């Protein structure tokens, strides 16, 4: 190549660098733990694009073409993007959010159309979205603009095919999902065929976080599940029949918030760190939540059978819902704002595990017309139902309770000895009552499972205390509400205690020293 051509090429490259850098410096940058985003406007819609994405490269190429009439040299454009990335590393790390984010003393809800709703204890308003904290996934859809109306949330009731008590609980739950400052539960919707489980799931999803994928099947792979949950604010999974132990444990972590690290692709030492906190709607015909730790993080709803004479077509349902949605959404923002206003005055007696949800939900219910106490009762009743479902479906709980009934309602031994005693009890039982393949394969696995069910067993009157003995072995002491020992003054008269309507046990009260000798 001649010297003249080399000079012309160098001048063209230099000119392209200047133009590209001027363009990119005009985009506000958002640096997160794992990525860097540029805030751009396309087709009148503002969004944040990752500098590492093809979408951003395509956008820059198109903008450059519109400005200069030609496309930039690929290597020059890549060098300019790398330079902008380096500048971004000098800025503070910000937590990027989908759809909803806290901002100072307010909550910002991204309508994904260039506007947002700003909610505070003083009210709410629709305004341009100039907050550089949001990212949008390809799946997200714009939300309708909310409309103010008196008690707009009541328009939601006619679409909730559940009991009156559950309508209150579900309405409060939806409102709490608009507060990203608390940990709120997920929901499980169960019901027979034709009871509108999927329709109700879509309604919840459309109100909180509308997207192209209204309902999805839950991925078998935890990595795929993590990716899906990490690309939306709220997700709805349809037609579940069961959850694996790994899926159940993962969902527990996600609901309360979990961080993880992965090796960066094409590297040996570099890692990516991510944090995920998300809730979801799950539905299925029968219950699929069997583990106590997940049940404590879920609210259960049951849809009622819709008779053929009352069934509406899909078009009729969604035309009506879409007409009501702006008013429903406005009513929800009214509840959130009022809830934030009265929250400092709210004190809850004996809150459930997700205490912040309980307290804010109580405030929202109060904003609905002094219904806080009613919400409190319905919520605690729902939590009791959770434990009943767990106990009914957890083989280990049923097995242990029946075993204790055969052993005067109490037990004290090493964990290994209890495991062997339960295994023998299981061997002699009917296969239809206790599926033997569900029993832990080893004593250490049994110990871990037993600890997971402590709260569920406690709801059934069973108290478990585990400690290390002098030999370093785990010793378990189990007591129940079925046998109450009293101090002995004279004699050793046998006392009969009722366990249930069908069975009684005869317990011989003995003094403390005799009990110690027997245990040893």
Keywords:
alpha+beta, four-stranded parallel β-sheet, disordered C terminus, 520 residues, disordered N terminus
On the 0 to 100 scale, the average pLDDT is: 82
Main pleated sheet: 4 strands, antiparallel
Unreliable residue stretches = 1-11, 486-520
In which range does the helix fraction lie?
A: 40-55%
Strand order of the largest sheet: 4-5-6-7
Give the overall form: globular
| Secondary structure: number of strands | 18
User: Terminal Cα separation, in Å?
Assistant: 97 Å
Helix/strand-derived class?
alpha+beta
Task: Please specify the SSE layout and strand pairing.
Elements: H1 3-25, E1 29-31, E2 36-42, E3 45-50, H2 54-68, H3 74-88, E4 100-103, E5 106-110, E6 115-120, E7 123-128, H4 164-176, E8 186-190, H5 197-208, H6 222-229, E9 234-237, H7 245-256, E10 258-263, E11 271-276, E12 279-284, H8 292-295, E13 298-302, H9 314-342, H10 355-367, H11 372-393, H12 395-405, E14 411-414, H13 415-427, H14 443-452, H15 454-459, E15 462-468, E16 474-480, E17 495-498, E18 504-507, H16 512-519
Parallel strand pairs: 8-12, 8-13, 9-12
Antiparallel strand pairs: 1-2, 2-3, 4-5, 5-6, 6-7, 10-11, 14-16, 15-16, 17-18
Helix pairs in contact: 1-3, 4-10, 4-11, 9-10, 10-11, 13-14
